[in-house]
Amino acid sequence: MHLGVPAKCLVNKGDEVKVGQLLASADGFVSANIHSPFSGTVLKIDKALDASGYKRDAVFIGVKGDEWLSTIDTSTQLKKDCRLDPAEIIHRINEAGIVGLGGATFPSHVKLTIPRGKKAEYLLINGVECEPYLTSDHVLMLEKGEELVVGVSILMRALNVEQAVIGIENNKPDAIAHLREIVTGFPNISVQALQVKYPQGGEKQLIKAVLNREVPSGGLPVDVGAVVFNVGTAVAVYDAVQKNKPLIERVVTITGKSLTTPANYRVRFGTPVSALIEAAGGLPEDTGKVINGGPMMGKALADPGVPVVKGSSGILILPEPEAARRQTEPCIRCSRCVSVCPMGLEPYLLMVLGQKSLHERMENEKVMDCIECGSCSYTCPSSRPLLDYIRLGKAEVGKMIRSRKK
Description:
By secondary structure, the protein is α/β, with parallel strands linked by helices.
């Protein structure tokens, strides 16, 4: 459900739970609470497959009715005023289990806790959504624009910053116009239209586009005075702070060229991906792969029965001709992968190092700076699986770094 230490389960088989009830508590600073998306009875605590194909600890709930905790405000009335101090805002965000909904799932209360000696000057809200096919952020900006802007103002208060910018690529003119109208009542929040350019949805790329500041290698956005949140996260912050609603659902795109009724759905966590596919008209006969995410950064699902989780931004059904991989050819040293890498890395070299398990060398070659955008694999004329090996090597380098810190 999130980056960092897995949450610690608090319920047992046979327990009755309500919507919004705490199921598992954060087990460390970089961790997040998990709440029940349903009401019913806990059937068992067991392992379940996640989107990556690994078995994870899970709570299985037999759904009964839809009974919410009485402390959650389920009304649709907009609450604009927030007079809480920064510490209380961060506490509520922590309690609600909010993480980055752009896909990284980094616990939001950690990002809001600025390290000593650092200073946040700007809050950037990521409405770029540059991944092809996905439109969940786009529809959220159109339908929850007021809640989004109030959430931005709450995040500004938590960070004690004076300026916030909502960055949106200019292929979403309706969202730009809609939010610009709303922010007229918020003088310190602006909406900036950006050139359509993949992968501008990355934190460091967004900071460069909006502020013309470059985050140093191995650094964080706050090193250049910026903190970045996704639009979905900002709406979740509004729900948590103003409505006392924990993070139990999100908007998910279900799409594909052969789908009967592609759409965006508000989905509670734990809902099987297969249920979304059925809602969109069922699995087409020409399906080649079911992708968790978009075509550039997403990963193929081995089992469509896996649940929707906090990081599930979309499900893409690719037809067989588009899903099939071409035969891998030898590298021709064309340097296309180098020229398109937004982080200035050498993907051809990192792939070779990953194949040979030379993880110390991969660390020296800055593999941890890779944002896994997939541009290298997409542009390679030899169809080499560059990102596959880089991801594997990056995971091992990450383990080495964490081991050293321990």
